[in-house]
Amino acid sequence: MKLFLIILGISIIFPSLASKKTCEKNFLHEIYAYGDELASESLSQYVNLDVNPCDDFYNYACGTWLNKKDKKVKGEYNFHEHMKDVYNGKFNGKSEAIKKVNEMRKKCNDLGEDYRNDCIKKVDNFGYYAFASFFVRRMKDTLETYTCFKSIKETIRHIKKQFKILLKEKKNLLDKITMKNYLLKIDNMKFEVSDFYLENLRNKTSMEKCYKYFKFSSKKDDVKKMLSNMKNYASFIPSKDKKSKVRCVDFIVNSESNGVKLEFLIDNYAFYLPEMNTLYFNPTICNNRCHNVYYSKLFNYGCSGFTIAHEMFHAFDSEGMNFDYNGKENYDVTTDYSRNIFNNRSKCFVKMYGNKFNNFLTLDEDIADNGGIKIAHRLFIEGKKRLKCSNRVIPKFEKLTQEQLFYINLARSICKNPNENPDKPDDENYEGNPKDFRIWKVLSNSKSFAKAFQCKVGEKMNPKDKCEFW
């Protein structure tokens, strides 16, 4: 395995060397065979080939997993699984903070059924910093993670190229001023691993100190006093310790790490901050379901390419369009001319889907999806020409083309969130979008998808009327 990683690292650090020889049997052949077996194992836990992809792609790409009683997937330890361990007391001996929060949860049992769940929810929110800190520390930095980050940064370089090409094509959408501002914004957009925020979150000493300030006795304190003290948490921190007061209140009360919501660092593969014009990607993106360094890059593009492109389009959504390349609020970035065209184009999505769900909640997401899939697919097409190993075959899925596998991996990134409750997957909506509905909206508007799966016009996944924004 170590030899695999060393060779793989060389292939990513020196991509020109890899691109010329990767398909030769004497160079990385075993690595690719290993990666294809991994991909086969991962796909087998999700894909249901018995379903007609043109009728129900959600169940085609994710049906096997959806029909499992035990939805825990081998090799996918996520935050929900971590929380099961927390509640079972597995870490009580390793963290005084987690032990205290678990005792506080038990205290909620003193309340009647009508108030108990609300109490537990409040305690869980109070303890989220401790839970997240312990979870992040378990995601150790390894050569494999480092190699994955290198691979993703390489992917981002190609996404930026495709993004700029797309913007330059949209002369009917962007006037000269708006196009100039948007291209400048892409050129200056920063792409970072969320290490800075994670490092603060990972600091065990600081985390334990924050919870040590909070006084709680399971024997002496009643539940009402506990809840009241939680509301007044800041008062427990000595005024002289100003640094801890700011830090602890941010993490526990505001659930933030330097202004970034902790859930962004735990629940998402990536997130974009318009006020910084920066896109951050998390270590959670490096897994068997999204971006694995052993997989074909074309296969990875389905998840990581789509996810990153989607987040980049938030730089130009209803909020992002009002920030310039430095992250400063500036309503002149997008002219009134382009705003009017944006509004007119968005009406298609409101007309097609607005009656079913709150269009104000999902419109920005729909448009980011609409652009994200276009960029990811362009990345796939460009990659087929650029990469010398675009003909790799995944065992058990030999009949599927690389393009079909690309779309399957894209759908898998939607049907299961990075750290959702695997026992209740349908309870977790994405920005107000039920997953099956979101997959349908993303793919049914793609002519390339319909062509890849040979879906006839009028079938569910290839309706006659489509919406295109970007």
TrEMBL record:
Keywords, ordered alphabetically: Signal
InterPro entries from the UniProt entry: MetalloPept_cat_dom_sf, Peptidase_M13, Peptidase_M13_C
Keyword Signal: yes
GO biological process: one example: protein processing
GO molecular function: metalloendopeptidase activity
Alphabetical list of SUPFAM superfamilies matching this protein: Metalloproteases ('zincins'), catalytic domain (SSF55486)
Any one annotated GO CC term: plasma membrane
Peptidase M13 C-terminal domain boundaries: 270-468
Signal peptide from the UniProt entry: 1-18
PROSITE patterns membership: NEPRILYSIN
Stated name of the protein: Phosphate-regulating neutral endopeptidase
Naturally occurring in which organism (per UniProt): Strongyloides ratti
High-level lineage: Eukaryota, Metazoa, Ecdysozoa, Nematoda, Chromadorea
